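Lab notebook, page 48
Experiment: co-folding of the full assembly
Goal: obtain a model of how the components sit together before planning crosslinking
Operator: M.T.
Materials (sequences as entered):
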Amino acid sequence: MVHTQDKKSLLGQGIVIFIYLAVLTGLEFFVAISFNSVPLLVVVALVKAGLVLYYYMHVYKLNLESEHDDESYDYKAGTNRLGLWLFLVSDSFVFGGLMIMRINLLGLSRPELNQLLGLGVTAVLLISSFFMNRGETLIHNGDRRGFLLNTAVTFLLGLGFLLGVVLVEWRLAIEEGLTASSGPAGAAFFMMTGMHAFHVFTGLILLAIVWINGRRGLYDVKNYPVEAAAVYWHFVDVVWIFFYPALYLIGTAVH
Amino acid sequence: MRNTNPIWKGLLLLVVGGVVGYGIGLGLDLLVSRSLNFNGSVASAFALLVAVTAFFFGLYGYHGITRGLAFQVVGTLLGGFFVSGIRALVGSDIIFGTFFFSEPAWVFGALVGVLAFLFGVGVVSDWMKWARGIDTPEHHEDEPGWQKYFGVSLDHKVIGIQYTVTALVLIAIGGSFALIFRTELAQSQLQFLTTTFKLFNQTGPQFYNTLMSLHGIIMIISILLGISGMMNYAVPFLVGAHDMAFPRLNAFAYWIAVPASVLMLMSLVLGGFDTGWTGYPPLSARAPVGMQMFFLGVFTAGWSSILGSLNVIATVVRMRAKGMTAMRVPIFVWASIATSIIALTATQLIGLSFQLVMFQRLVGMPFFDAAKGGNPVLFQHLFWFYSHPAVYVFVLPGLGIISEFLPVFVRKPLFGYRWIAMSSLGIALVGFTVWAHHMFTSGMNEYLRVPFMYSTLLVAVPTGVKFFSWVATIWGGKITTPTPMLFVIGAIIVFLMGGLTGPPNAAIALDLHLHDTYWVVGHFHDTIFGGFVFPFFAAIYYWFPKATGRRMNEFWGKVHFWLMTPSFFVLTLGMMVIGLRGMRRRIVDYDPALGFDFTHLLMTIGGFLIALSVLIFFINLFYSIKHGEKAEGNVWNSRSPEWQVPSPMPVHNYDVPFEVVGEPYDYGLADSKYIEFSPNGSKHIEFEPVPEVEKHH
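Observation: model returned without errors.
Model output:
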C-alpha cells in the first residue's frame, strides 16, 4: 500500500512536529523550574499528547473508509487497527490508575530526583519517537533500507531510555535513600517508572521483531505490523509525556 | 484400551494422580520441614495439580489442556525453585516457607506456571510463528467429535461452549463451597468447622473464611466466563459474521482463564485467605500465601475479560452483515457492547489495585500502609472503580437475553427497541460514576457520599426503562412457556426484587445501618440470579438445539425451574429478613439469642434444593447431548438469523451471507422480514413458516 500523500511532505511533517514537541518539552521544564504552575504543565502535556496522537499515531486512520471486502488486506488491517486502539484504551486505564495513585498519595509533592537525568531520558524517548515516525513513513513508501536504519536507531534510543531509567536513575534514587519501601514517594516512583519500563521493554521486543522480519522483506507490501509497532511505541511515549511532569516537575520535592 | 470409556479412564487416573501428587508433596515437605504433615498444604497442592492433570490425560491424551496443565505444574515448580535458588545464593535467611516455597517463590512460580500453560496448550504458537515471519492458515479445521473442546480451537462456537462448560464447572465448585459453609451456618455455634478442625493449615473458622471468600470470587469468575460464553457463541451469529474478529485472541482469552481458575483453587490449599473476595488491605497485606494466589488468579482472569470484550467490540463494529445499521442490531448485541465497554476499561483498575497489594507484600511498597504514609482507602477507590461496574458486566448480557427472548415467546414486537438499546449503554456509563457507594462507612470524605448516592439512584432510570419495555412487550401477547421462557419470566421477577432492594442501600442514612448485613447479601444474590443465572439457564436451554441439533428435556427443564425458583426465594428473602434484623455478613457464627436459627436452617435447606435443581440441570444437559429429542429446525420459531439455517450450525456459520432488510423484532406483523439470504447459490434449507395467527394491535 503506497500512500497518496507525498513522501517528502510526510517526512517534513514529522520534523516539524518533532520541533514542536522539543520546544514544548523545553517550555515545560522552564515552567516547572521558574514558576511551577500545575495547570500550565497539564496544558503543555495535553498539547504534546495531542500532537503525538494525531501526527505520529495517526488516530484519524481509525476513520478510514476501505472498500467493504471482508477478505481484503486493507479491511483486515483496519480491523486490527481498531483492536490495537481498543487495547491502548484499556492499557491507558492502568496508567490512569497509577496517576490517580500518585495524586492521592503525594498530592503536590514529588520525589526528589536528578532533574538533568530526567530531562535527558525524556529527550531520548522523544527523539526515538521521531525516528520511529520516519521509519514508518519510509516503509509505507517502499524504502526498506531507510525503514531499517530508522527503526534500528529507534531501538537503540529506546534501549538507552530503558537502561537510563532502570540502571542509572533507579540506582541514583536508591543511593539518595529513595527506595521502594521508604515511603509513598518511593513506592509511587518505582511503581510508575517500573510499569512504564515494562511497556518500553515489550515495545523493544516488538521493534526487534519488526526489524528482523522487515529485513527479510516481509513488510514491503503488507506493512500493517510496522504501523502497529510504531503506534504502540508512540503510546509508550504518550504515557511518559504525562509521567515525566508527574514525577519530576509538579509540586515541591520531598525526601 | 480402546474400548475403555475415556471418562472412566480419566477418573481412574484422577485418583492415581491424586495419590502420586500427594506422595510427591509429602516427600518434598519432609525434605524441607523434616516432619510428615499429612493434612498440610504442600501435599494437597501437589495432589490437586497432579490429579487434575492426570484426569485430563486419561480423558484426552497428552495434548491441549493436558499439556497445558502439565506445563503449568512444571513451570510453577521451576519458577519456584529458581527464586529459591537465587535466595539461597544471596544468602537469604528464608529460602523455604511454611508452604514449601517462600512467598516470592510461589508468586514467581505461579506467574511462570500461567505462561507455561499458555505455551503448553498451544494457544500462542501461531503468534510465535508470526513473530518469526512464518504465515499460518487463516482457519484451522477442528477434528470432529468432542475432543476439539479440550484443545485449542479458533472456532467461536467451540470457544463459546468451552467458556460455558468451564463456567458451569466453576459454578458447581463455587456452589459446593457455599453448601459447606451454609451447612455450618444452619445452626448457631460451631458444629464441624470448629477451632480444633484442621485442614490445609487452617482452623475451622479460618477455613470458613476461605470458603466464603472463594465462593465469592469463583462465582464471579464463573459469571465472567458465562457471559463470555454467551457473547462468544451468539454475537457472531447474530451479526452475521463467520467468526469473531480475532479468532486467536479469542482462544487466548478463553485459555488464560483456565490457569487462573487453577490459581484460585491453589489459594484454598496454600493457607487460604480470609478477606472475602474484596481483598481489602491491611488485612490482605497480612493474609497467608493463598492471598497472593487469589490476586494472581483474578489478575489473570481479568485478562480473559479484557481481551474477550475487545474482541466483541471489534467484531460488532467491523463484521456486521450488510444492512445491519445501528438500530437493526439485535438487542443482545447492544447489551454485549455495553458490557464490553466496561470490561475493556475498568477491569484494569482491579488488576492494578491487586498488583499494588502484591507489591506491598513482596517488596514492602507502602501504598496502603497508613503507618508509612500510605492510604488504605485508596485501595477501595481503585478496587470499586472496577468492582461496582463489574456487576453491570454481569447483568447486562442477561438483561439483553431477556429482551432478546421475550418477543420470541410472546409473539409480539419488542416494545421500545431504541430505548432498550440505549438503556444498556446508559447503565454502563452511569455505572462508572457510582463506585463509592460501597464506601459510605469506610471513612472517606463525607461530602462525597451525596453525589454518589444520587448517581446510584440514577441507575434505576435506565433499568426502569427495561422493565417498562418488558411489561409492555408481554402485555396482550400470546405467551407460551417452554423452559427458556420460564427462566426469562423468573429472571424478570427475581431481578425486580434485586432492583427494588437496591435504592435502600444507595440511600446514605439507610446504608449506614444496612452495610455489612445479610440484607446486602440478599440484594446482591437477587440481582445476580435475576441478571445472570436465570438468563444464563434460559440461554442454554434456548441455544442448546443450535449447538447440538437436539433439545433438552422439557419436563426436567421445568422441574429444574420450579424447584430452583421457590428455593431461591426462601434463601434470599431469608437473608434479607435477618439482615434487616441485624445479622452480620461474612461471619462463621452468630448468637443463638438473636433468634435467627430457624431462618438459617430454612435458608440452608433452600440452598441444598437449589443445588439439587442444578444437579438435575447437569444430568439433563449431558443426557440430552446424545439422547435428546432431535431438533434441527427453527425450534422456537424465531426471526433471528441463526435459526434460519439448520442445526447444528455449519462450521463457518452462514454458507450464504444474508442482508438485513427489516426490523429484528416485528413478531406477529404480516409481511415483515428481518433478513434475506442473497439469492444466488442459496444452500440453506427453508423451513415451513409457522403461520402467525394474531396480529399485534
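Interpretation: Chain A has seven helices and two strands.
Next step: discuss with group before ordering constructs.
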